[in-house]
Amino acid sequence: MKRPRLKAPLILSAAALILLCSGCLEQQETITVDRHGATKIDIEISGDPDQLSDPVLLPSGPDWKILERELDTTNNKPNLGVHAVAEVAPGSQFPPSFVPSGSPDYDLSLQFPGQVTVRTDGNRTYYTFSRNYKARRFAAFDFSEIPSLWDHDLESKVLDTGLQNVSKQDRQKYLEQLSSDYGYRYWRYYREALSSLLQSGALNDTTMQRLSDSAANYVEETITPDLVYSIMQRDEPQIQAALDSFAQSLDVHFLGTVSPVIGTRTKAIEQYKQAYARAHREYKITQELDGFEYNIDLIMPGTIVSTNGVLDSDKPGKVSWSFKGTKFHDADLPLYAVSVVNR
User: Fold this and answer.
1) Tens-digit pLDDT profile for residues 199-243
2) DSSP code of 111?
3) What does residue 324 show for φ and ψ, rounded to 5 degrees?
4) What's the whole-model pTM score?
5) What angle do CA 309, 111, 50 make, to 5 degrees?
6) HSE-CB for 60 with a 13 A CA cutoff
7) Could you write out the DSSP letters of every residue in 27-72?
8) Are 110 and 93 in contact (CB under 8 A)?
9) How far apart are CA 31 and CA 300, in angstroms?
10) 292-299 vs 25-33, strand pairing mode
11) What is the gyration radius of the CA atoms in the chain, in angstroms?
């Protein structure tokens, strides 16, 4: 795409969205390992039910036993609480996701394979815990973490003082930043779908590039700073409605450019639709995970001698990790700990 082109939702842009979501969703996890290496994983998830509406965000399937699922509507702000456990036999792999391995949604879910291994050396027994949160594609659809394409200082300035209170030059630059990001994202959804068609033989590379270039030009001409500004002047519910409507118009336009090329091949059209929707949902789930605060306590036999977590001086067998879902952006997040028991 010639000029990477809003950040969804456009209401406040990505950084503001993270600020709003921060603390909205919380996952508290306690992992307890016994002397035989058997492990109990106890997870409690709580937060806004609207933000927890996608099933891949919550435990399900045979690996997880749901102890409690409760929607609290006593306050003005509803809260969904889910409590689940998994019990893992010595030497066995942890459940690698909240979604069953054979599910169509497995690849879209957050994956975090792990295991505890036990090794005896003389009069010492070593317990090794490892878990690896798999990277989520983020930069593929969103360039807000690329300094050359996203001005965080400008964004902070706009959020602190208000869009109307910054200089005309800063306002224009910020609107260009938003429009670029939003347009780039939808163009990438489209390109992912085209790539799926190419890999199945329904398109050749020349046709894919032609369609991709045409879509890039359309996005640049359609998603302008003026359009973004006009949307941002509306009340919040109207902003979201306008964004949804505009996104649907992009979906229709992109499909309209592919259909004449594929013709009456219904299977190829369905493949395009599925690939486009899948790319869109992949990013949406990643964005929802951004709002999570993860707090993990691991309790091991003996004394922990090596870890990348935070140790508790009063509890030699305990280590903790705390991080936000943004840590999964385009990089794996490994957790590890080794403890020893003298016999």
Assistant:
1) 999 999 999 999 999 999 999 999 999 999 999 888 888 888 998
2) B
3) -100, 160
4) 0.89
5) 100
6) 14
7) EEEEEEE-TTS-EEEEEEEEE-TTTT-SGGGS--STT-EEEEEEEE
8) no
9) 8
10) parallel
11) 24
